[in-house]
Amino acid sequence: MVDIKVARHAGFCFGVKKAIEIAEEVAQSNPESTYVLGQLVHNEKVIKTLEGKGIIFVEDIHEIPQNAITVLRAHGEPGTTYEILGQKSITKGKNLNDATCPLVTLVHNVAIKLKSNGYEVIIFGKHNHPEAIGTSYHLRGNGTFIVEHEDDYRQVIDHIKNNNFGKIAIISQTTMSVLGYKKLIENINSNFGNKFIEIPLALKNLDVKYGFVDTICNPTKQRQSDIDELAGDRDMIIVIGGKNSSNSKELYAKAKEYGIDSYFIQSAEQIQKEWLNGKQRIGVTAGASTPDYLIDEAVERIKEITR
Q1: 103-216: CATH topology
Q2: pLDDT for 90-117, tens place per residue?
């Protein structure tokens, strides 16, 4: 009998749940079309389900009609989005429903406060991820320095050395690797005289010249910590998540680092019989935008194959 263990924090986080609830409530209570800019959450199955409820997803803001009922995704938006929607008579309190995750809003507020206190702010994040783009708006817009990988620390050091910044702070996209962020800071410090020290999230001490703030969210930390637990007694790990889900991809990368056979899937039908040959202890986890039913289906598929 194969032993299947599902991670304690697999699946939806509260920010994703809230965003989906907002979109569904808005669509249900309005006879007109409901528009969402971009992917509400990074999961293809969830998007398909919402499309079935009459929600229209658009990648280009100009595709949203004048005065249309609109929902903004969980990842946050730059201020320009609100300005353009305002020109279309789409505003909060009227027909604009903001589903931005509160933990993303927290990062925006951290960025704004650091900037207003004289810091040049660098983001540890993905260049094309909507959250990093949204946070960048509050700093230097397209000119904000974003570093994607811990091994790119020399680029950060060069950026600092080539500019005359008075104070510098590094923050992170909420869904990045906890270990990756730690390694980035360690790599910078090892080659830059150990100058960067942690600034607590409360931002009470902003006299530090070189600092970093831990803005990776707790749901991301919990899911990554679960990989450590699964790796301790599993001989295989399956990660379920959307193709564009940053936090899901980080879970998969973390599992691979342990040297355990690991697979990244979007849904149960992708699980192949040969993966399970000789495996007795299988771990299953899922990114923060993965619904419970996809986890349940994956577990059932494993049971069917190994029966």
Answers
A1: Cobalt-precorrin-4 Transmethylase; domain 1 (3.40.1010)
A2: 999 999 999 999 999 999 999 999 999 9
The verdict on whether 300 is a catalytic residue reads no
Beta-carbon-side half-sphere exposure of residue 202 (alpha carbons within 13 Å): 2
**pLDDT digits over 127-167, tens only?**
999 999 999 999 999 999 999 999 999 999 999 999 999 99
Helix runs in the chain, H state only: 14-29, 44-51, 79-87, 102-116, 130-137, 153-161, 178-190, 218-233, 246-257, 292-306
Shortest CA distance to 8 belongs to which of 177, 215, 219? 219
C-beta separation of 167 from 119 below 8 A: yes
Measured CA to CA, the distance from residue 134 to residue 240 in angstroms comes to 26
CATH fold of the domain at 3-11+219-306? Cobalt-precorrin-4 Transmethylase; domain 1 (3.40.1010)
- Crossing angle of helices 178-190/153-161, nearest 10°? 50
Angstrom distance (rounded) from CA 124 to CA 173: 6
Q: In the numeric block, which tokens belong to residue 210?
A: 């070189």
If you average pLDDT over every residue of the chain, what do you get?
A: 95
* Domain boundaries defined on the chain: 3-11+219-306, 14-100, 103-216
Topology of domain 14-100 in CATH is Rossmann fold (3.40.50)
Q: What share of the chain is helix, strand, coil (3-state, %, to 5)?
A: 45, 20, 35
* 3-11+219-306 and 103-216 have identical folds: yes
Q: Which of 102, 46, 93 is nearest to 69 (CA)?
A: 93
**Which residue in 63, 83, 120, 131 is the catalytic one?**
131
Chain-centroid distance of CA 262 in Å reads 21
Start-to-end CA span in the chain (Å):
8
Round to whole Å and give the CA distance between 58 and 88. 15
